[in-house]
């Protein structure tokens, strides 16, 4: 399995506050992920601090696994 986190920072990289906003997103989802079953297909929409949909995280099969 693979875990992915994809965040679209827009053209302005969160109005020049990319480090702060990405840190907040990772802290939030790092703590919240325990509420999800760790299996392919699990995932959720990711929101920024203004509650805008900015991406998603998920778990997928690892097609390259041997």
Notes on the protein architecture:
The protein has 66 residues and is an alpha+beta fold. Helix content is 29%, strand content 29%. It has one domain. The chain has a 3-stranded antiparallel β-sheet with strand order 1-3-2, covered by helices on one side. β2 (43-47) and β3 form a beta hairpin. The chain starts with a strand and ends in a 6-residue tail after the last strand. The relative contact order is 0.29.
Distance between the termini: 11 Å
**Biggest sheet layout:** 3 strands, antiparallel
| Global structural class | alpha+beta
Strand order of the largest sheet: 1-3-2
Low-confidence stretches: none
Q: What radius of gyration results from the CA coordinates?
A: 13 Å
* SSE order, one letter for each helix or strand: EHHEE
Shape summary: elongated
**How many domains in all?**
1
Q: What's the total helix number? A: 2
Which percent bin holds the helix content? Answer: 25-40%
**What integer is the average pLDDT?**
92
Helix and strand arrangement:
Layout: E1 2-7, H1 13-16, H2 18-32, E2 43-47, E3 53-60
Question: Briefly, what is this?
Answer:
The protein has a three-stranded antiparallel β-sheet, covered by helices on one side. The protein has 66 residues and is α+β, with helices and mostly antiparallel strands. The protein is 29% helix and 29% strand.
Tag the structure with descriptive keywords:
3-stranded antiparallel β-sheet; alpha+beta; 66 residues; 29% helix; 2 helices; single chain; elongated
């Amino acid at each position: 399995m693979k875990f992915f986190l994809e965040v679209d920072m827009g053209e302005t990289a969160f109005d020049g506050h990319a480090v702060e906003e990405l840190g907040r997103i990772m802290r939030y989802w790092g703590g919240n992920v325990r509420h999800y079953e760790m299996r392919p297909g699990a995932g959720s929409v990711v929101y920024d601090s203004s509650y805008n949909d900015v991406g998603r995280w998920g778990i997928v099969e690892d097609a390259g696994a041997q």
